[in-house]
What does this fold into?
Amino acid sequence: MSRDGMDDTPRSSADRPGLNLGPPSGDARAPELPAAPAPESEQAFLAGIGVPLVIQLTTLIRTSRTHDVSNQAFQRILQEFMTLLLRVLEEETDVTLSAVSEYFYLNGVRVRAASNSLTLYHALLSEFERRSIGGLKFVQGVTSAEFERFFQLFMAAEDPALASRFDEAAQEASIFHIVPLGPQTLVDEETVPLETHEPASERGRAKRVFWRTVLGTKKIVLRARQTGRPDLRHAKRLVQPVVDGILKNEHTVVGLTALKDHDEYTYAHCVNVSILSIGMGNMLNLPRQTLADLGVAGLLHDIGKLMVPGSILRKPAKLSASEWELMKRHPLNGVKMMFRMPGLSRLTLDSTRAAFEHHMNFDRTGYPEVEHEWGQATLSRIVAVADCFDAMTAHRVYQSVPLSSFEALQYFMGPNRVMFDPAVLWALVRTVGLYPAGSMLQTESGHMVLSLSPNVNDLRRPHCRVLVKPDGSLVPEHDPVLWTPMPPHEQVERVMRPDEFTFNTGELLAA
Amino acid sequence: MAARHWVHQFARTLKTCRLYEQNGNSTVDRFLSDLADALARFHREHGPLVLKFSSSDVCYEEASLYLARSREDNLALPFYRDGIRGLTFNAGTTRDQLEALISAIIRVTAMGQGDDDLVTLLWESHLANIDIDYVAAESDVSAGADVDDDEPMPWPEPDETEAQIVEAEEDDSEGPAEPRSDDWTIRELTLEAEAGFAELESLAPAEVRRFHAEYHAEHEVPITTTAIALVQAYLAAGGDGTSDGDLGRFLPRVLRESLGTGRWIEAAEAVSLLERHGHAQWSKETFVQELMQPISVAAVAAQLDEQDAESVLDFSELAQSLGTIEIDIMVSALAQCRSRRAHRVLIDAIVERCRNHPDRLAPWLADPRWHVVRYVTHMLGVIGGEHVAELLEDVIRHPEPRVRYEVVTALSALPPRAGRPMLLGMIDQADTRTFCSVLHALSTGPDAELARRMFLLMRRPDFEKRPGAEQRAVYQAIAILGGDELIPELEAELISGNWFSLGREEYQQGIARCLARIGTLQSMEALRRGSQSRRPLVRRACEEALMGWAPRE
It folds into this structure.
């Protein structure tokens, strides 16, 4: 008996209406597309189990990098994964986990990642992409032993040369209950270039770039901890797509900097500062190469915090004077680490200066204090504003109520603006808009909308998602209404305070 | 197949560019132009050229175009290795873009390649008509991290030993007065954002212009200058300046870069900082040894050749900061410089530094390069002093005439008591140029003793076999050195011989001119007597000389 009392016959994912099955037979990697909504309760079941399934699969991949499949740690996670999988297979004849345009679907039902598991979600998307896999189909009869064999091949297929022979190898290994599928694409997405798997929408591209940059930054930081110096070569590669996007006037990625409530925020802060800095540099009409340098400087500005004790970084209370002194040394620590980078170039110096000066102020206040006359470099001023803006809106353990992006902007516009270069402040507002992403807005017509990303053509009319209609009804989640940008007849009446609504803006921004 | 043909042409062009300097070489130019033309033809006939790279092959529409024959001849590898899986050459791809692509490949495949991979190099080249399909730089999240996946990923904590940070003592006093927002402090929020921005917007044109001016001014400052200033600021802000710190690793790079770009002041500053904050393994002596390597000296000299006098002077200051080795450094550079301006400034600087210790230059007199010996001789001459004469003694017989000539010049600048004996000693074995210059050097004013020596030289039986220039030099010397005491003997020599002494016209004319140049009344009388001689040659020589007679000043 199924959970909802419907008939017990397991159904194939192919039975679902709206699915495009591709070639009918013979092609195990035929594209399979997400479906129209399943019956509500079943949909809820699949959506609910999809999240742990994705997390467990990602965890398996991570674990297998350090442990053999026979290892107990791997086996424990494998059993948890199999339990989930078999639970779904009790209900369905087969289970298809497909990756389509930056989303996972389980038998056609979208798996919505919680904000705290976004990175795992994107990590698995990357793993699929790296192997040119659009999804995995599990059919009745799959066993742990078969999954182990499959998994070994899956990990080996990271090498592109082997990836092309994945199907063949699976057949040879007598794996019949797990089928890798080809790259997926939504029917209504017109121009998905399959060869590059590039998402068609600007938002899709921005999300991909953003999460790749977060993951890459994490890797840089962790590696810097081991080697004692940041990997500049890798950092350069990470910021190039951001610069390209912003130069193409794709500002959605700026909106993603408003995502704060997720488990990788510490690393995302560096990415946010990098993105905001590039955006501001672009508004200031800096050359393309300088934007890339600025991006790297933003990415590495806080690298000195690796030398600040974690107990201070994560202290859920006000810092004592001595702790504050240690915290204030992180720019100096940053310089110390930057000194270890090989070579000497404009980029290394700009990055080092940003690490050194991002807490100095335009009015010569701030820290660290230099005994002789020392002015903040132009690029450091940009990084400083980006850092301050992002840090103020961060959800940190020591902040009971973080500032909203709009409140942070007010801070910059108030008397404290003397601390910042006016040209850079102007660029900040041009970059994030007057109602930065994450701001909940009430329009004159009575709509309640969430600002998603800035509209460079009209700072007062950002790109938004409508959440509540003037009659007070909610816009259904599965049928979102997007204003790209806010229409001319609409106007922001006021910015709502965080205590006035209960929406999870983080999840809405990440969607 | 057109694509195969073009890829092979590309490979040949790449090889050619590896062989020759790309700038201005006609062969390279021709190859690149042909390659661009062939690509344009391809575009006209087939549209964009899309190449795919595997680890050992370049493919077009699944067809293999350039299968690797060996590790060396693997066109696809540099692309594949750096994550490039495909290149699309769109219509409008220019010769310059192809050249940039080839330069980037050469850079990443060269020995000791820089820090950038091919993707970054191509990105920085901004090839508008070439699309690059590459694998993203980030890889799996967990690589290099041993973090429990169940826990949110924290900012990694420092190793206690690495961080060398003393845990903050429990402290009741509080930090900043404002509420904490990460490492920033927040004060009162006030103005409405819109009003604030309206004000900013009105200021923006002027402020952005000012920002740009500052940005450009900053980026015109050489990176070594910025690096040194940054180090000083870091130290002034309480940065770690201990000898085992990272500064000790950074400063040598600044020093090398300063030397490589001819930023001598910054190099001197770097040396000074290294002395205080350098790594234990760094020593001035080792650095000087490196600096004195031929390749380093050549690089320094190349910089000096391009620089103005002030910068060359800065180099001498740098050398001075390196201690007693300064002279060796400067002479080494001088030896390799080609610019006269650099020579002049360096010579002046060396002379100044060696004025009280000319013997510091002595080792260089044994240098196998004649021009180095000549420079050093010249400098010794400028320094002057009796001690210098001793140093020059060995160089008197230097095989290179130009050195000997310089020695004469140097000796002539010394006090007569020191220089003259050596000059006289050179006369007998000197070549014509040296001989003339020695005599010229000796002929500084009337000197009876020297005049007599010259006179005796003139009376030697082989005198008239000497080259004309030498004979003239002797006459000139006698004219300058001689006085009334020599006139009787000159007159006797003038009228010596008889009617049959043919072929001595030049000799007699030379003596007559000597008398005229001595310019005393007695010399005029002697010439008048000669002008009444019955021998026409004597008479004519004296008459001509009398016309040129002028009283000695």
